[in-house]
Specification:
Blueprint lengths: L3 E12 L2 E12 L3 E5 L6 H8 L7 E6 L2 E4 L5 H6 E4 L10 H11 L4 H14 L15 H13 L5 E5 L7 H16 L3 E5 L3 H5 L3 E7 L2 E4 L2
Parallel strand pairs: 3-8, 3-9, 6-7, 7-8
Antiparallel strand pairs: 1-2, 1-4, 4-5, 9-10
Helix pairs in contact: 3-4, 3-5, 4-5, 5-6
The structure holds adenosine-5'-diphosphate and magnesium ion.
The site of adenosine-5'-diphosphate has 10 residues, from helix 1.
Length: 219
């Protein structure tokens, strides 16, 4: 049986006169990690957002777990399973635990299970002792770790991480790198847009590069 979980073809996106993506496509295999590199403004964020159904494309189609759809009729069912994690995650001004539980509630996870799943997710992210802290008081690194926990707890089939270590350095960057590595070894399928040389160097990641509106497979 094919391990291909997502096949994307012919994504085209213009901003005004400028063609940002021109027939971009990609093929992702289940349980594999991918890094997507490319200069600033080459369309990495736009491409990830299109894959997650957060932004329209003018042309293109995706086949996800055997079901094919055009991007202009992006299936609601795909949104549950393809999650985009923003470079600068937005957290609600409630407690950290409530932020993690919110997505579980929206998916009708029974309330008695929500708390234990959320607590486990915060432990995974090394944030167990921060559960009552208002998110606006968290550091940039803690916010990114919280966003990764919030996505992971929903058990998505595919996670799209947008520059998870951007604007972080030192210990904060190292902690996020560890979580990213953990996601990639936990048999999740992960696609990471990044400039971070340490992420790019991770041997477990397959390398993709965006250039002139297309996605190229490296090596
Ligand atoms: N909503 C928008 N309206 C107009 N132009 C946009 C919009 N979003 C992105 N762009 C253009 O597309 C380019 C690529 O954006 P982006 O996908 O963020 O690239 P990357 O993530 O690789 O830096 C940007 O430089 C910008 O000029
Ligand atoms: Mg970007």
């Amino acid at each position: 049986m094919s391990r291909v979980i997502l096949e994307v073809e012919g994504v085209t996106k213009h901003f005004g006169e400028r063609a940002l993506l021109e027939g971009a496509g990609v093929m992702l295999e289940s349980g594999s990690g991918y890094v997507l590199t490319g200069g600033n403004g080459t369309g990495k964020t736009t491409f990830l957002r299109i894959l997650a159904g957060l932004e329209p494309a003018e042309a293109g189609s995706l086949t996800f777990r055997g079901r094919t759809a055009a991007f202009d009729s992006y299936p609601e069912a795909f949104r549950r399973d393809i999650l985009y994690v923003h470079q600068q995650p937005y957290l609600f001004r409630t407690g950290l635990l409530e932020n993690i539980e919110y997505g579980l509630a929206r998916r009708n996870v029974p309330s008695d299970q929500r708390r234990s799943k959320a607590v486990a997710a915060l432990e995974w992210a090394g944030l167990a002792d921060r559960h009552g802290v208002p998110p606006q008081k968290l550091s940039g690194g803690e916010k990114q770790r919280a966003a990764l926990a919030r996505a992971r707890v929903l058990e998505p089939t595919l996670m799209l991480l947008d520059e998870p270590t951007a604007n972080l350095d030192g210990e904060a960057r190292k902690q996020v790198l560890e979580l990213v590595t953990s996601l990639c070894t936990e048999s999740h399928t992960v696609l990471i847009a990044t400039h971070d040389p340490e992420i790019i160097r991770l041997a477990i990641l397959n390398r993709l590069r965006i250039e002139a509106g297309r996605i190229l497979v490296e090596e």
